[in-house]
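Appendix B, record 7
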Amino acid sequence: MTTRRTRPAPRPPEGTPPRAELARQARTVLADAVRIAHWAAGAPGPGTTAPLAAHALERAATALELSPAQVRAGWDRARLAGLIELHGDTARPGWRLRAWDRDDSAVLRGWVALFDAWSLVHAAPAGIEAGAVAEAVEAVPQVLSLLQLSAGPVTVPALLDLLGQRVAELHEERCEVPLGPGRPATAATAAGATADRPDPAATTGGTDADLNALLLDWALEGLAAVGALTLGHGHATLTPLGNWAVWVKLEQICVAAQSPAGNIEQSAADMLLGCARLTPGPARDEYRAWLAARTVGSAVAELLAVARGQDALLRGLAFEALRVVGAPAEPEVRAVLAESSLRPYALLWLAEYEGNDPDDAQDVLSREEATWLWVDTAAAVADHGETGLLVRHLDTAVQGTVPALLDEVRAVGHPRTVQVLVALAAAHPDPALAKAVRRAAFQVHTGGA
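Structure tokens (predicted):
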């Protein structure tokens, strides 16, 4: 028998501060965010969107003796780090805020959530196409790896060269032809020196090197804004927090590469299928390994794309993987509430994310949403499970009786309703019930009442 871990727990690089010291540094980075989170949790109606509403912004600035810009920045960081959660018009303290002074692990997880969201903390330059910004974000892990392996300052030209190479690789992987001449840069903008940047509007029509230099400046400033690195004249250096975070992510990838399941290189759909027969613990390990090898944004987008597909099993598993992502996935999950096929899953995800007990999370679903989810789950069982599971799935319906269930299933309009009812009729041992289910399937198929 083999075990998932075949080596002892890895030790951080020599010179890495103890976790208590790393947590102290993280508390320093997020000090304003914590103050604003405490204020928001106790203030009446502080607002529901970032940035704060104007009147709430003024109240917070006065109460905390901060500038409006500091309040806006702290509000955004508090939300991204999971220090506050928005429920309608009320901001409530997140679990990390409640544990902030006593739990170093909660502090470090909160800071890592902010670190992962660096591109949201520092707005991208105006006038740059979203695709170019996304490529830069996707290339940043390689830049961070170079900084971590160098264990000291790295010049901006060296970082710019690596960024350019990685962006070119992304173009090649997507079979794209560069629009510009792509000639090498003769000089890079000094890190942090925004005054010498090329005009963003002009950059979109300039060379690839100009664009990469502008995007590198933005990335370095964004990472500095969350406390992951420091900027000097023409060079950048990881902070102890940044060095530790990059090391942790690299270790996750190394451990994942040893995983018997071997899903790290797979697409989201293949990875989820590979995890379908794993128990919850090992499945979560595989999700974490797969996620560690990708940027959060691209991983969440790929999982949601799979969830929109026709395979109901993969839809459910995609949201299980999104539970492992946690806070960084919240905006994207909330955005799919308008999609009928994803809404029940998204509502359950958000309920659990907001602290509801998983056993009670079903209460957030309307009767129609619960029925739709029942049919979708039945479709997953019919496609991938055993007939006995489909029969037992009847007991999970909210209706309580089979006639009531059939009436509401016919009305809910799930595209797999007919197939689910036919499979259930074929599997059920009670002839009378099977006949009723088969009749309901015929009525749905023919459009009858």
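Remarks on this record: The CA atoms of residues 275 and 282 lie 8 Å apart. The chain is about 60% helix and 5% strand.
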